[in-house]
Amino acid sequence: MAKRNGGPSNTEIDMTPMIDMTFQLITFFMFVMNFSEAEQDDRIQLPSSQLAKPAEGVIEKPITLQLTNAGSVIYAGELVAVRDIGAYLEREKTVMIDENREPNSATIIVRADGRAQTGEVQDIIRICQEKGFERFALRAQYDDRR
Amino acid sequence: MARRSSSGLTDKVEINMTPMIDVVFQLMSFFMCTLKVVSPEGDFDIRMPIAAAAAAAPDDQQVPPVRVKLSAAPDGSLAAIAMNGTPVADFDELRKRIIGLVGADSGPNSLAEKTEVEFDADYALKYANVVKAITAVSGKVENGQVVELIRKIKFTPPKKG
User: Fold this and answer.
1) Is the ipTM of this complex over 0.90?
2) Domain residue extents for chain A
3) pLDDT digits (tens, 9 = 90+) for B98-125
4) Which CATH class is domain B65-155?
5) Residue A82, Cβ neighbours under 10 Å: how many?
6) Which of A118, A124, A141 is the mutation pick for testing B, counting most B CBs within 10 A?
7) What class does CATH assign to A48-142?
8) Chain B closest CA to A144's CA: distance in Å?
């Protein structure tokens, strides 16, 4: 006790290692983390393709429709039947028109499960077409196996 | 200087590592909880207006579309592939046939750029097969480089049953 109150042994802790390590960790996780707002649902097992390389540009305000194996569409986190997505797309279209954007300028990202029926994917495309959307991006998992 | 050297032995202070470990563990647990491993994904871009089939005017420059029929087995797996009515053994052969039809050149104004592939897939066919077929017609990977083939892709209207 006497030594502590003495004063001359008042030493500052070297913070350098802590700051070093903290910054290294933050840098590591910033590289690893995905900050994009891509909608990715774990329920979807995308088909893989060697040619599905990640796009270099960012698709501006896309509409993502995810088709599950069971034939339901995940739209904005909600499970919707394929036949009911028309109403949601109509709402999207109204918002786009309010923002002076044409529906045919928007891209519909179709994230369909590889085990889903092709006809259901085609049904989704047809409903989108009926609402005036014509740009589609069929999403697949990039497979870099040679 | 004199004071420091004289008190060198008695003033040896151990650094308290507790705050550092606290911060490091908190950071690690935060990032581990929020981290979502994302596998790389890519797109096949398709432009398919609803009236394209009806509005397509006959054009001298227009190349007749290649029709690829994908038939499904009762369990949804791929039963048969046919290109313009001719049976094709697998997707590799489909790619070879496409290269034989349009050539390896995919530059501007090339035959590959003008040609369109229309997929006619059975309703119950598993979608992964369609992606394989799109991959086969839209390019190939050679020495790590993607060589593009046909980019214009469309589907026939869905036929249930």
Assistant:
1) no
2) 48-142
3) 888 887 776 777 777 788 889 999 999 9
4) alpha beta
5) 20
6) A118
7) alpha beta
8) 9
